[in-house]
Amino acid sequence: MQVYLVGGAVRDELLGLAVRERDWVVVGATPEQMLQAGYQPVGQDFPVYLHPKTREEYALARQERKVGPGYRGFATEFSPTVTLADDLRRRDLTINAMARGPEGELIDPYGGERDLRARVLRHVSAAFAEDPVRVLRVGRFAARFAALGFAIAPPTLALMRQLVASGEMAALVPERVWRELERALLEPRPERFFETLALCGALPIVLPELAAMWSSAGPAAEAARRLKAAAALSTEAAVRLAALTATLELEQLAALAARLRLPTEYSDLCAQAARLCDSIGHADQLDAEGLLQLLEAADALRRPERFSRLLLVGEALAGSGATPWPPGAALRRALACVAAVSVSSAGLTGLAGPELGAALRAARLAALTKAGADPAP
Question: CATH code for 1-118?
Fold first, then answer.
């Protein structure tokens, strides 16, 4: 049994980046031997185990053979005869197909270190074109390493276009598209993900509602600007997605959310942004009634955390560069003012039902009106 550190940990160490997680490949072992050594099985499609102490993932060396359409159309072979080179050959990019041996020696059968130095995203083998997920993964790595100057190798881009033309992208299930999209949104340059999918022709297939944004130079530049601005303001994928989709029609947004089965926190924020960000962008020009209506429409009192995210989306769309952003500052002051008005503080404890609701709103409006007449702190 030989154990090798593989993949991203090796790549990031060579790039001088912090290692996020470590994955291991075990060569020459059987599932029975792994169990006897105390490893806990977690893999469903092939043998992956958790180390009994570190809880890091250890996978038996494996190779794959294409037997059907889509990213699930593979037969996986794992046995003690599968070599480390066999296992690395099935990986997507050369920079992800390196390993460290027991003595720390670099094992690089496919030129990953060379491509790291050249800042190139290059496929390992022609088998790359068999798995549609790899198009999404290349887009994600382009988003991660754009700031380091990485570019897609022309032969790899050609294979991506070939994969798209084959119809394989249509076999991707929504959950897998969303998984890669969410991870891409968290990368330093998320706009590069969409640019890459547009470049190879995959965007109209996997994210048709967004395809028009990247169909020509003007809209693409504006979409990229919004994403860059959102990424500078927030590390949250939901904020970044809402900034990108805020210009969609509500019907398009609903279709995107339904098809990708977006989590509620994402779909709610995106819908709020599409409906309200135009108004939010002019909030510093609103009177007390307008501010209160906007806070009510955003459900800001009950959902203050979502409202804070919504203001970040509005700021990304505005791209004003002002600090603090005037509309956001006006709405934060208004929310604090309204939140300070309660049933007890307004002397409304004897009221109930619609009468209480109307009286409480009137008290909040009065507080906003007074605050507007007083100098801002």
Answer: 3.30.460.10
Which has the closest alpha carbon to 138: 186, 90, 73, 197? 197
* Residue 100 burial (10 A CB sphere; 0-12, 13-18, 19+): buried
Q: 239-285 pLDDT, tens per residue?
A: 999 999 999 999 999 999 999 999 999 999 999 999 999 999 999 99
Quote the CA–CA distance of 29 and 79 in Å, as a whole number.
7
Q: How many degrees, rounded to 5, is the angle at CA 325 between CA 324 and CA 331? A: 100
Task: Give the mean model confidence (pLDDT) for residues 343-372.
Answer: 93
Q: Residue 62 in 3-state DSSP?
A: strand
Partners of 26 in beta bridges: 3, 60
Phi-psi region of 56 (alpha: psi -120 to 50; beta: other; left: phi over 0): beta
CB atoms within 10 A of CB 68: 9
Instruction: Give the separation between CA 252 and CA 47, rounded to whole angstroms.
Output: 41
> Is there a contact between 155 and 191 (Cβ–Cβ < 8 Å)?
no
Please answer whether residues 234 and 312 qualify as being in contact, where contact means their C-beta atoms are separated by less than 8 angstroms. yes
Q: Where are the domains of the chain?
A: 1-118, 340-377
Residues in the chain: 377
